[in-house]
C-alpha cells in the first residue's frame, strides 16, 4: 500500500477504538439493538450534507440499490447485531481485544474471495498467533463457570461480528462501480440502522428517550465515529491496488487503544495478565502479517 493510505487508515482505527467505551456507557441507558439502530440512523443522516445534491443522492442509491442493501445487511445489520449484543455480555476492554482479531478473518476471506490477495507464509503465522490470542482471552474469562459462560457467548458473538465485518469489506472492495463512498456509507448505514431498530421493537420494546445529557453526548459521538470512520474505510477499500488483508492490518490499533481506554475510563475494568497476553498475541499476529506482505513470500 502507498504511504498515503496509512494516515487515514490509522485515523479510522483510532475513531473505532473509542466506540467500545462509548457503547458500554450507552448500554447503561439503552438496550443493545435499539441503541445500535438509532446510532446508525443518525450517522447516515449526518453524512447527507456531504453527499452533494439530494436529487443526485437518491439517484445514485436507486441505481446501486442492490449493492447498498447487501452492504447494509452484512456491514451494519449483521455486524452490529452481533457486536452490540456481544458487548452487552462482555467487558469493554475484552471486547476491544476480540474485535481486534478481525484482521485474521479478513486475511482468510480475502484469500478465497479476492483475486491477488493470497495467503502468505507470514499470514499463516499471524493467523495462528491471532487464534492463540483469542483462546487465551477466552480462557481468562473462565467459560466453564456460570458467569464465564455468559461472557463466552458474548465473545462468540463478537467473533461472528468480526467475520461479518471482513465479509462486508470484501463486498465493498469487489463492488468497483464509481459510487461516492460518502453516499454509499450514508445509505447503507441508515438502512442498516432501520433494520436494527425494526428488529429491536418486538424484542426490546419502544425506546424511552427520557435520558440525561451524558447519553445524548455519547450517542452523538458514536454516530460521528460511524459516519467518519466507515466513510474513510470505504474510500480506502475502493482505491486501486489496496488489498483487503493489508488494509485490515491497521486494525491492530483498535484492541490496544480500545482496551486501554476501557481500563482508564470504565469503572470495575482493569487489565489481567491473561488479557494483556492475549492482546499481545493478537497485535503480534497483525504485525507479522504486515511484515509478510512486504516480503511477498507466498505459499505454493
- Fraction of residues in H or I helices: over 70%
Roughly what is the average pLDDT, rounded to an integer? 80
How many individual β-strands? 0
Global outline: globular
Distance between the termini: 23 Å
Q: Count the helices. How many? A: 14
Biggest sheet, in brief? none
Structural class: mainly alpha
Whole-angstrom Rg:
19 Å
What letter string, H or E per element, gives the SSE order? HHHHHHHHHHHHHH
Strand content: under 5%
Number of domains: 1
Low-confidence stretches: none
Compact summary:
This protein is mainly α. Helix content is 78%, strand content 0%.
What does this structure look like?
This protein has one domain. It has helices at 3-17, 19-26, 32-47, 54-63, 65-89, 92-99, 102-113, 121-140, 146-174, 181-204, 213-237, 244-248, 253-265, 273-295. The radius of gyration is 19 Å and the shape is globular. It has 300 residues and is mainly alpha-helical.
Topology:
Blueprint: H1 3-17, H2 19-26, H3 32-47, H4 54-63, H5 65-89, H6 92-99, H7 102-113, H8 121-140, H9 146-174, H10 181-204, H11 213-237, H12 244-248, H13 253-265, H14 273-295
Notable traits:
300 residues, mainly alpha
Amino acid at each position: 500500500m502507498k504511504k498515503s493510505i496509512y494516515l487515514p487508515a490509522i485515523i479510522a482505527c483510532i475513531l473505532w477504538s473509542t466506540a467500545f467505551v462509548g457503547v458500554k456507557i450507552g448500554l447503561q441507558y439503552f438496550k443493545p439493538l435499539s441503541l445500535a439502530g438509532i446510532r446508525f440512523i443518525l450517522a447516515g443522516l449526518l453524512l447527507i450534507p456531504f453527499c452533494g445534491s439530494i436529487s443526485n443522492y437518491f439517484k445514485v442509491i436507486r441505481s446501486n440499490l442492490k449493492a447498498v442493501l447487501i452492504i447494509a445487511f452484512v456491514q451494519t445489520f449483521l455486524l452490529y447485531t452481533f457486536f452490540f449484543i456481544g458487548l452487552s455480555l462482555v467487558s469493554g476492554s475484552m471486547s476491544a481485544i476480540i474485535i481486534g482479531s478481525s484482521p485474521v478473518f479478513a486475511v482468510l476471506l480475502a484469500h478465497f474471495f479476492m483475486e491477488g490477495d493470497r495467503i502468505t507464509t507470514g499470514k499463516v503465522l499471524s493467523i495462528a498467533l491471532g487464534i492463540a490470542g483469542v483462546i487465551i482471552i477466552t480462557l481468562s474469562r473462565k467459560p466453564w463457570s456460570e458467569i464465564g459462560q455468559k461472557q463466552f457467548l458474548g465473545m462468540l458473538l463478537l467473533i461472528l461480528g468480526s467475520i461479518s465485518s471482513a465479509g462486508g469489506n470484501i463486498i465493498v472492495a469487489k463492488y468497483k462501480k464509481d459510487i461516492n463512498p460518502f453516499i454509499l456509507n450514508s445509505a447503507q448505514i441508515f438502512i442498516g440502522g432501520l433494520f436494527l431498530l425494526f428488529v429491536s421493537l418486538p424484542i426490546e420494546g419502544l425506546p424511552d428517550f427520557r435520558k440525561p445529557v451524558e447519553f445524548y453526548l455519547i450517542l452523538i459521538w458514536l454516530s460521528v465515529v460511524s459516519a467518519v470512520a466507515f466513510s474513510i474505510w470505504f474510500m480506502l477499500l475502493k482505491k486501486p491496488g489496496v488489498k483487503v488483508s493489508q488494509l485490515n492490518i491497521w486494525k491492530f490499533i483498535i484492541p490496544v487503544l480500545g482496551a486501554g481506554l476501557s481500563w482508564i475510563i470504565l469503572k470495575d475494568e482493569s487489565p489481567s495478565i491473561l488479557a494483556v497476553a492475549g492482546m499481545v498475541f493478537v497485535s503480534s499476529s497483525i504485525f507479522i502479517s504486515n511484515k509478510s506482505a512486504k516480503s511477498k513470500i507466498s505459499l505454493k
